[in-house]
Amino acid sequence: PTWRSLPRRAVAFRIAHVIWGVVELGALAHVWGSALLRHRDRCLWASMTLLLVQGVALVAGRGNCPFGPVQRQLGDPVPMFELVLPPRAAKAAIPVLFVVAVTGMVAVLLRPPSRPSSPN
To answer: What is the pTM of this model?
Structure first.
């Protein structure tokens, strides 16, 4: 269905779902940036928490977005990743992003924060 053919509640939910996805991609980018730069801040721990909560939700949904049934009930049968990817790639996106997120969090834990150089 096109955006115009969706019920208003489905459009509002789709927009909120896309915003949620963008926030999570930002969290993932922050985790990786922090790992690479050996930087630690409150936003890093919030990002990791957000990704862990999302991971638990995906496990509860058996690898599917837990919002899928709500989205379909509102009249939008198209999964969010299928808005930008072909169906096969969309199905692979969740496991790939899971591996990228876990690897980033492990990198944060294995790479200690950088220490400022001491004055001579």
So the answer is: 0.85
